[in-house]
Amino acid sequence: MKLKRLFHALWWVVLATGLPAQAGEVTYHHFASEILGRDYPYTLYLPAGYHETQQAYPVLYLLHGSHGNERDWVDKGNLERTADRLIAQGVIPPLVIVMPGSQSWWIDGYNEAARSAFLDELVPQVEATWRVVPQRDWRAIAGLSAGGYGTLNFILERPDLFAAAAALSPASYVPLPPRNSSATRHPAFLDAAGDFDADLWQQRNYPAYLDDYAEQGQIVPLYLSAGHRDVYNAAHHARVVHQALAPHQPELLTFEVLRGGHTWRVWRKSLPNALAWIGRFLKPPVALESLPPSS
């Protein structure tokens, strides 16, 4: 009888707090990158039941910000608990989340070829190592700040790869980053003389991909967000992104302004809505025997 009461008490705690009945698993990995000439680290979230099922899962690549690392989303972003809750509530399908580490702004910059390493090494490595469906309809990408910058660049350059995306406080400044942005001092954009290369910024920033993206037949549904007191005025720049894409995909674009600045408080608050948006477009897990071929 006491055991029964304890069970009911714990169940009501779960309901009251929103904690899921089952938790996913977070682990840390790396592989040798020929492009980078060093190990490529990434943090991995596996949904509850991953090891027991005979299924392949959708995958989300979740990018960190400038001078961040592959552990940020777990250590600061409440990623594990948020994903557990949304999966348990049926808001998003069970999915694998890959959080890579980069020393660049997700571009092929002066310090490393982060874009090439991501597309040509990390994605194939993940698809060869973990049970994820290697097709566009099961693949998404998101990121914050510099990771939002990378997200926009990736989806506009390669809409054939991603079914949905989210850019939180994207550091996609037009025409150039503000002086207080770390981009102006980041090794990715500093030439041999140590000067910020404005031409490289404009060559790598999302407007450079807009025309080609509009001419392609594939659209990537996009969630945008930013804080209303962002010190880099990210809300304004996200609104510019929204205005640029709205004529092309009016029903597959959303923008949310939150109270706060360029901080983890805003990104933690934005993450559930970003994941919910992405979950609308990702296909659910599939049985291994019906796994589609790579694309």
UniProtKB/TrEMBL annotation:
Organism domain of life: Bacteria
MF (Gene Ontology): acyltransferase activity, transferring groups other than amino-acyl groups
Gene3D superfamilies referenced in this protein's UniProt entry, alphabetically: alpha/beta hydrolase (3.40.50.1820)
InterPro entries: AB_hydrolase_fold, Esterase-like, Mycobacterial_A85_antigen
Signal peptide: 1-23
Keyword set, alphabetical order: Signal
Name assigned to this protein: Esterase family protein
Taxonomic lineage: Bacteria, Pseudomonadati, Pseudomonadota, Gammaproteobacteria, Oceanospirillales
